[in-house]
Amino acid sequence: MRQAAGPGAVGRDRVACYGARMTMPRIPRNQAEQLLSNLSRDLDLASPADILTAAHHHFGGAAAISFSGAEDVALLGLAQDAGLDFRVFCLDTGRLHSETYALLQACRERFANGLQVFFPQATAVEQLVSAKGFYSFRIDGHSECCGIRKVEPLRRALASAPAWITGQRRDQSPGTRAQVPVVQIDEAFSGDDGTVLIKFNPLARWSSSTVWKYIGAAQLPFNALHERGYVSIGCEPCTRPILPGQHEREGRWWWEEATRKECGLHASDRS
Ligand code: SF4
Fold first, then answer.
1. Does residue 18 belong to any structural domain of this protein?
2. Who wins on pLDDT, 19 or 83?
3. Domain boundaries, position 55
4. CA 229 to centroid of ligand 1, rounded, Å
5. For 181, which DSSP code?
6. Which residue among 146, 151, 252 has the greatest number of ligand 1 atoms within 8 angstroms of its CB, and so is best to mutate?
7. CA 262 to centroid of ligand 1, rounded, Å
8. DSSP characters for 44-93?
9. Is residue 2 domain-resident?
10. Are 155 and 269 in contact (CB under 8 A)?
């Protein structure tokens, strides 16, 4: 039986190794393209631990792990196992499940005392909800709300990062993530000053079951909603459990077409 997240779910001693606040400038595009060429060749079949090690080798603690779900917990565990210190942040959209907050707290205690939390801009949320109500995404799509509650805070979170590390898997979404490489330039969040943001996807080649095997073996905390049929977990009003045989993305924005089921955090991966 897996152990759900919560105050009692912190099974090991607190490890305060993820409070890194190191900063490093982004690298110029031509330099990044050369680096990417080398890394793509070296890391194509590498393990997640080796990919994390390469990210740390090149960007140190300035590389950031954006933390939200099971895959990100696995990344934190893998980084901890390897003794690697990364900056860790999460986005609080204001619409998360209470179980997700319990997971964030459990991981804060277990891994990341320095966990940075980014909220949406209050004025933008006030204007959206005042004008369109609390469920506008059910009427005119989730892009506007996700843009305010997720993408803008992520842009701020990444502004000082030369690289970020995500938990994307190729089998997560056949329509949008099937081609996710282990390392890439993130065009969506690179600036217009000639420098770029490098994105590492150490779990690109892992399946969901591999992630869960690792979480179970390492006794890592996880979102209690996973025990109630939820697989891919986002905001409370936009997430529901799925039935056996359904793809995990069918539990997200189920009122929209499958090809639109991204929130903008990984916009450059759409195919
Ligand atoms: S997932 Fe839903 S509630 Fe959350 S930011 Fe997107 S549209 Fe808004």
1. yes
2. 83
3. 7-269
4. 20
5. -
6. 146
7. 11
8. TT--HHHHHHHHHHHHGGGSEEE--SHHHHHHHHHHHHHT---EEEEE--
9. no
10. no
Is the pLDDT at 212 greater than 70? The verdict is yes
Encoding tokens for residue 224? 């209690």
CA-nearest residue for atom 4, ligand 1, is 235
Among protein residues, the one whose CA lies closest to atom 8 of ligand 1: 145
Q: What's the one-letter identity of residue 33?
A: E
- Please tell me the pTM assigned to this model: 0.85
Spatial distance between the Cα atoms of 75 and 59, rounded to a whole number of angstroms: 16
The rounded distance, in Å, linking the Cα atoms of 24 and 258 is: 37
> Which of ligand 1's atoms lies nearest the C-alpha of 234?
1
| Residue type (1 letter), 178 | A
68 vs 47: CA distance, rounded Å: 22
Among residues 90, 145, 238, 263, which one is catalytic? Answer: 263
Confidence grade of residue 15 (pLDDT, cut at 50, 70, 90): very low
Q: Is the confidence at residue 137, as pLDDT, over 60?
A: yes
Q: In this structure, is residue 95 part of a structural domain?
A: yes
Does residue 123 lie within any of the structural domains? yes
Q: Do the Cβ atoms of 118 and 153 come closer than 8 Å?
A: yes
